[in-house]
Amino acid sequence: MTKWVYSFGNGLNEGRAEMRNLLGGKGANLAEMASIGLPVPPGFTITTDVCSAFYENGRNYPDDLRAQVDAAMQRIETAMGLRFGDENAPLLVSVRSGARVSMPGMMDTVLNLGLNDRTVEGLARSSGDPRFAWDSYRRFVQMYGSVVMGVTHHHFEDVLDQFKRTLGVLDDTAISAAQWREVVGAYHEIIREHTGQEFPSDPQAQLWGAIGAVFGSWMNPRANTYRRLHDIPASWGTAVNVQSMVFGNMGDDCATGVCFTRDPATGEDVFYGEYLINAQGEDVVAGIRTPQPMSNARAEEGQHPMETVLPDAYAELLRVRTLLERHYRDMQDIEFTVQRNVLYLLQTRNGKRTAAAALKISIDMAREGLISKEDAIRRVPATSLDQLLHPALDPKAERIQLTRGLPASPGAASGAVVFTAEECEARAARGEDVILVRVETSPEDVHGMHAARGVLTARGGMTSHAAVVARGMGRVCVAGAGSIHIDYATMVMTIDGHSIAEGDWITLDGSTGAVYLGRVATIPPVLSDDFNTLMGWADSIRRLGVRANAETPDDARTARRFGAEGIGLARTEHMFFGPDRIGHVRQMIIADEEAVRQRAINALLTFQREDFVSIFRIMAGLPVTVRLLDPPLHEFLPHADAEIAEVAAALGRTVEEVRARCAALAEANPMLGHRGCRLGLTNPEIYAMQVRAIIEAALQVSDETGKGIVPEIMIPLVATRAELEVVRRAAEAEIASVLRERGAALDYRIGTMIELPRAAIQAGEIAECADFFSFGTNDLTQTTFGLSRDDAGSFLPFYVDHGLLSKDPFVSIDRDGVGALVRMGSERGRATRPDLKLGICGEHGGDPDSIAFFDEVGLDYVSCSPFRVPVARLAAAQAALAHREENAVA
Ligand code: PEP
Ligand code: MG
């Protein structure tokens, strides 16, 4: 018989933390907490296998599930001394979903299940508190009605708001039992009206309804979207947790809360969280009442910290905090309830955290001896470092502060205000910076939050949906800015007399919670000591070198600041577009008199030499790979009439002649046209000028610094050995003449990009003429797939959405196709020339998954944009650790 149900609590713990694939994260951790002696209300977990079986069998449960659930329910009844559905002493349970990883977007929780018009009276009698009993009942009807029966949440809220207005009360706790009874009646009516069904009064029907809703929610559109965004396979399924209720809403010696064992925003080693007296779990997250801080140290004037209000439960919670951190060796996010001064734990999981917190917690825990340095490296998601490198507001910048909310997710962001997730996504797709502003967010908004630069909410605390999701995504977030009034009908928000319409700009500071009018200037981030420590640890572990793609002095400096070990790609064409150069470039292309062309080339030589001198100086002896001109010449040609006239005047030609020359250079398919080494072969004077500039600059900086600069000259878009051989010979001739003129000697390398499938296939022959290869995986992806780099954006998302491709191949290397060519090129190249230096300089050089692949293939280095350098350093260390583990297993 398959075991579908695992009990926990009251001495029978059938699960363990390691069983999260079967029991989901929540179920596995409840069992683990119970088994280490923590106070967990008894319950059971229905496994993720049931979810899979449910979908495989046309949404039917396995035959023996019901009997196993009945037996597990009886165990809870025995443990609690109560009976499910009993009219005198009813057992109430919560039903919660729990996948392997936590997943907003699914049905989350139904509390107080088991109540009906009769059992509510029993609860009133057994608790001696009718107000509590009816409050619990109305909560249950509302939750069940919305999450299980599908009635929109706000129908219930509207009734309650209206009711409170009539009574003239603000706080739910001021509502009496009789009044709650009226609300329950109205809720039943709402359900009847919107579903045509009665609210189920049979507790068994309620239980199976809720279980069915959890399994059903695994395939709802929101959950599907979330899974797609986070690469979670549908086959994992969710578990269902059924657990005896404990009550935080039974009076002033009761409470409920959410806390983190360390600060999830900064990583500081302080106990952190929020709680509410006389409340149930959803009140904290819903932002209906303002939660209070946990500790006295974190409390402000007028607040009521748990440490003061419930000192015994707080002390117990502190003990649990230490115990759980030691046990899990990670920062925990804990949900708890205090019932009549007794603490119960309802959940623990590794807490979501900002990148800064992930970094600090990893370093601190390694120093505390809780984890190893290697663990610390594994635990910081490489891409999350991006967040640390984000800008902050310039302290000197002028600003008008509109309001302040909670500093829910750090960083600074400016953008146009939008009020719906849909508008947010649409504008972001058009390249606009947008700030999503909502009263509060819900899982329906996740796609909009993803597209936004920042999120601002009027309601909700540090553990509200907006705060948790934004932190996880690395979006700036200011939550619970109470002075904002949003009118969704007119798409205008007002803040203390300022009226801000959709499209107006605001700036958020997620580190302080401040909201500013308009766009406020930002400054680059300062790298913390923890950051440098982690980078140092990563560097001591990684095998792959990390260089940067940079051609401006600014980029080169940034690259060094972030720890680049050289430049893997300086795209010289970017230097041709400067306002002082483009005129000469155009003359060089269009002139047909030799003397005129040479004059333009000489002018460019001076500029290029200066360019290379400054890069060589900044890189101070580190390797620099300079790529000779790559794009087709017509990219540099004038378009506007005034520009054409300017070139015509400089060359003494008519406007028509210049126009005709431009037209002659146009190509139907320039990406596959007259570019790369093809250009160098037909216009050798351009490459000769560039080679001369490189060598002269290297000589100059070698003389200045005494450091022997060894320039690496890279030839783009080579398809055949013959192409490279001819271009190389010409370059060597030019180098020889520079050295002869100067009476100098210089070490240099000449290599090629491997960015065409033919080059990868012919890499063995090509390596005969190359000192190094650098894989241009942008063009290699384009040409292997036959997918235009510039046009694929319009249909690639369709491929990813429909599972035709698991990821965008321009972002993450296609291991089976493009990757296979990289592997082949490497192997064939090295077979010819064992010391052949191998790098990659396409965008994939900054993508952690691709970096893991390049490490596996045995490349020497990756080269990526300067801001990705730290990401690449960490990803390279993580790849090295993963290989170590694989080798240890093998
Ligand atoms: C490439 O093709 O991967 C590359 C680095 O060159 P570019 O992007 O300049 O074509
Ligand atoms: Mg290329």
Write the layout of secondary structure elements.
Blueprint (H helix, E strand, L loop, with lengths): L4 E4 L11 H16 L7 E4 L1 H9 L8 H16 L2 E2 L5 E2 L1 E7 L9 E5 L5 H9 L2 H19 L4 H15 L9 H19 L7 H15 L3 H9 L8 E7 L10 E6 L11 E6 L3 H6 L5 E2 L12 H4 L1 H18 L3 E8 L2 E9 L4 H14 L4 H7 L5 H4 L3 E2 L7 E4 L1 E4 L2 E7 L2 H9 L4 E5 L7 H6 L2 E4 L7 H9 L2 E4 L4 E4 L4 E4 L2 E4 L3 E5 L4 E4 L4 E2 L5 H13 L3 E5 L3 H9 L5 E5 L1 H4 L5 H9 L3 H26 L4 E4 L13 H11 L3 H11 L11 H6 L1 H22 L6 E4 L5 H22 L6 E6 L2 H5 L1 H4 L5 E4 L1 H9 L10 H6 L16 H15 L4 E4 L7 H10 L3 E4 L4 H21 L1
Parallel strand pairs: 3-4, 16-17, 17-18, 18-19, 26-27, 26-33, 27-28, 28-29, 29-30, 30-31, 31-32, 32-33
Antiparallel strand pairs: 1-2, 2-7, 5-6, 5-7, 8-9, 8-11, 9-10, 11-12, 13-25, 14-24, 15-19, 16-23, 20-21, 21-22, 23-24
This protein binds phosphoenolpyruvate and magnesium ion.
Question: What does this 3D model show about the protein?
Answer:
The chain has 890 residues and is an alpha/beta fold. It folds into four domains: 5-244, ATP-grasp fold, A domain (Dna Ligase, domain 1); 255-353, ATP-grasp fold, B domain (D-amino Acid Aminotransferase, Chain A, domain 1); 390-523, Glucose Oxidase, domain 1 (3-Layer(bba) Sandwich); 572-748, Alpha-Beta Barrel (TIM Barrel), CATH 3.20.20.60. Strands 14-24-23-16-17-18-19-15 form an eight-stranded mixed sheet. Strands 26-27-28-29-30-31-32-33 form an eight-stranded parallel β-barrel, surrounded by six helices. Helix 28 links the parallel strand 29 and strand 30 (749-754). Helix 6 packs antiparallel against helix 7 and helix 27 (684-705) packs across helix 28. The longest helix has 26 residues, at 594-619. The structure holds phosphoenolpyruvate and magnesium ion. Magnesium ion is lined by residues 755, 776, 778-779. Magnesium ion binds next to helix 31.
